Amino acid sequence: MTANPALAQLEFLVGAWDMELSDAAFLAEPDAKALGSVTFEWAGQGAALVMRIGDAATPAATWIIGRDDAEADYHALYADDRGVSRVYRMSLRDSTWRMWRDTPEFSQRFTAQISAEQAEISGAWQKSVDGGNSWEHDFKVRYSRRFPA
């Protein structure tokens, strides 16, 4: 369990997950799927949650998730092997996981549903290049917990 009570709600994420990306313009074929792996682990004895994406099939990315205990939402720092770095807001309410980033040049938002047994997460990313005035589908993603956890 995390030592930071502000992150206790994220405990179910800790472990290894399989990832499937689909319906993405950046994949070679419209119906192509990219499979990868994701791990969540505590950093700093539970001070933050680290999400690592990537293996031979997918680009590497690292998310560091934390929260100011005076705020309801989380913050997520993102960096990947393309040299991209971003800051997102994040919420987890009931069975809905959301992340969003609002900037004039490139905004993104993610909404996913967490299964009742917390073993599968299915969602989609959207993007905007006009400050959030119009949105378009970016890609779908599904995370499935590996068993045993």
Please outline the helices and strands.
Elements: E1 15-22, E2 33-43, E3 48-55, E4 58-66, E5 74-80, E6 85-93, E7 96-101, E8 107-114, E9 120-128, E10 136-145
Please give a quick description of this structure:
The protein has strands at 15-22, 33-43, 48-55, 58-66, 74-80, 85-93, 96-101, 107-114, 120-128, 136-145. By secondary structure, it is mostly beta strands.
Structure description:
The chain has 149 residues and is mostly beta strands. The protein has a single domain, classed as Lipocalin, CATH 2.40.128. It contains no helices and ten strands. The protein has strands at residues 15-22, 33-43, 48-55, 58-66, 74-80, 85-93, 96-101, 107-114, 120-128, 136-145. A hairpin with a 2-residue loop joins β6 (85-93) and β7 (96-101).
Question: What are its keywords?
Answer:
mainly beta; Lipocalin; 57% strand
